[in-house]
Amino acid sequence: MARTRVSSRGQVVIPKAIRDAVRWSEGTDVDVELENDVVTLRRVVPERRRATLEEVRRVAGILKYNGPPKSIAEMDKAVGDMFRREWKK
Fold this sequence. Notes:
The protein is α+β, with helices and mostly antiparallel strands. It has a domain at 53-88. Helices cover 36% and strands 13% of the residues. The chain contains three helices and two strands; from the N terminus they run αββαα. It has helices at residues 16-22, 53-60, 72-88, and strands at 30-35, 38-43. The chain starts with 15 loop residues before the first helix and ends with a helix.
């Protein structure tokens, strides 16, 4: 157990050992819950969203292709050819 004090502005310092144990760093969002006389802090887990293909292309610099659209069959064949080349090494 660790002891801390509430400041005049209502702030509480969470001891470093506890922050390290729960991997909280500056800027971590927490939910505060009161039940009877117990205050509970829980880290807010951000909702994950899937990146769009445009975001992947822009950020990762992949998916560059300047040609006519390919069919699913053509893409499947290209991926299969690539794996066969790689596995022969």
